[in-house]
Amino acid sequence: MLVHNSADIGVKAIRRLPPTGSLEAFLAAARFGSLRKASEELNLSVSALSRRVQKLERHAGRVLFSRQGNEYRLNKEGQRLFEQIAEPFDLVAAAFEPRNVSRKKSLVVGVPTSFATAWLIPRLDDFRKRNPDIDLSLDTSGSPTEKLGESLDMIIFFAEEGVDRLEFQPLRPQGAYVVAREGVVDPLNGIKATLRDTPLLVHRHLPHILEVWMKEVGLPNDFQLKIDSYDDGPLLIAAAQSGLGLALVLEDMVNFYGNAAGLVRPFGEYVRTPFSYAIAARPATGSAHAIQRFSKWITEETQRDKLWRISGKMLETA
To answer: Strand 246-250 and strand 200-203: pairing?
Structure first.
């Protein structure tokens, strides 16, 4: 029988780790953002789970969460620790699972149909090839923010800065500009002169865009506009294509709603708005590690896709 002593194999002194229960409590609170949900997941009382989190904070020598009632949000120290231990902890737990248990990490993402069809689906094969161990499902049904943390692990949604209470990361900030059918507007006349005779087509459910745009292009509040309102994005684009006026649009309103052939930006202006497509996460039943990898992938993809293209071509300025 071959026996090794510590000198033969270079045994190091065993380092003391925090109690496993405290680590589980920390990871659950971090993933769910709520002591109630985390306690239900671990089958503990809220007070017992809170004590375990506090015990880990004492062991670490630093506060790991910002607290508001039973809502727990990772602070910078907590986020750093979570990124260091979440995946190794999951790997240790997986080592003790029965061999016939699937090792695939599940992830359910809520996404608007327009975003999924125009942007996500054409790129999804790349994500699947890079992450064959993630079982990704998409949910395009309504009210994604209400289902986050319940049946959805993550959502992609249309967010408004300073209004949405949900913590989110902007993906595609939305600039605004006017578009028109080529030849309808003479850009040499300027915006003010053009709008005295030409209807401005706007989206009825996005009133802030008009206010911000008017201010940025130098139109006074009392400037008399002839407004035609539409409550549907594709209809607004179709109206502009038909030559019914200047359409005030967000970038992805044009980008995602079908063929924009024949439309130009006659004045070339670009106005930042408080709107963006954004992501938010709150694990329901999915893997926190899968959420991290999907977030990283989609963030990198949107950063590479800063030029808005329609049918492979930039929307031209007249």
So the answer is: parallel
3-state helix, strand, coil in the chain (%, to 5): 40, 25, 35
- CATH number, domain 174-273: 3.40.190.10
Rounded-to-integer distance, Cα 56 and Cα 214, Å: 53
Burial of 162: CB neighbours in 10 Å, binned 0-12, 13-18, 19+:
exposed
Contact 80, 126 (CB under 8 A): no
Q: Which residues of 210-229 are buried (b: 16+ CB within 10 A; e: fewer)?
A: bebbbeebeeeeeeeeeeee
The whole-model pTM stands at: 0.67
Q: How far apart are CA 227 and CA 199, in angstroms?
A: 6
Residues of the chain with CATH 1.10.10.10: 15-95
| pLDDT single digits (tens) 115-159 | 999 899 999 999 999 999 999 999 998 778 888 888 899 999 999
**How many CB atoms sit inside 10 A of residue 9's CB?**
8
